[in-house]
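[audit] Reproducing an earlier prediction to check determinism. Same input, same settings, fresh worker. If the tokens differ from the archived copy the diff job will pick it up downstream; this log only records the rerun itself.
[audit] input (240 residues):
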Amino acid sequence: MRAIVYAEYGPPEVLALEQIAQPLPADGELLVRISACSINPGDWDVLHGTPYLLRTSTGLLRPKHPVLGLAVAGRVERVGRNVTKCRVGDAIYAGIGHGGFAEFARVPETAAAPMPSGLTFEQAAAVPVAGTAALQALCDVARVKAGQRVLINGASGGVGTFAVQIAKACGAEVTGVCSTSNIDLVRSLGAHQVVDYTRDDFTVGEGRYDVIFDNVGNRSLADLRRALGFSGWALLGLNQ
């Protein structure tokens, strides 16, 4: 099969299109024919091998896994032993950790889910990393409730676009922070207010929020604390 591989850490120039052996699904795994794979900040980090602590899991001197790709969507080509929920031909999407930049990838059945009807493969592949990060932060950690005031810093990025919609669906009053060119986008996702960071500073003034979800990391904790209510949450998320 064809795959985008890399044998050393470095810039995008270390990536190469090569022919490699097609993987075989182990027990509890699926072999998926990849239709789409999203590119996430984690792929950039793993490509460069930074921060260096990351290499304790990806390989100290060189990559343990030669194919990047954290999140995929496609159709099940083969199933391994003890697979009980997925069948050949099923359309699935999954977060797999590595291996998505190829024609086929091994996917643990536990990491796969049926692809929602109405989504394209490209749309579905964007969900497992960015969408899950936003969902876990707002619903599992902050437990956003109806009527709360939620600010999303980086509202036009991968995680941020999901976060605006999820917070709105929870019944929160949503403020999105983005650049001038993305104001209409963020507003169309359901934000009640939009702050243009090139003109205004959301940490200055009388605005107070129950939850601030910072996907950019360009403000100090002291800045975020200043914009929070007495018992508010400040969540540091994934970069754009």
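[audit] rerun output stored. Observation attached for the diff report: The longest strand covers residues 29-38.
[audit] end
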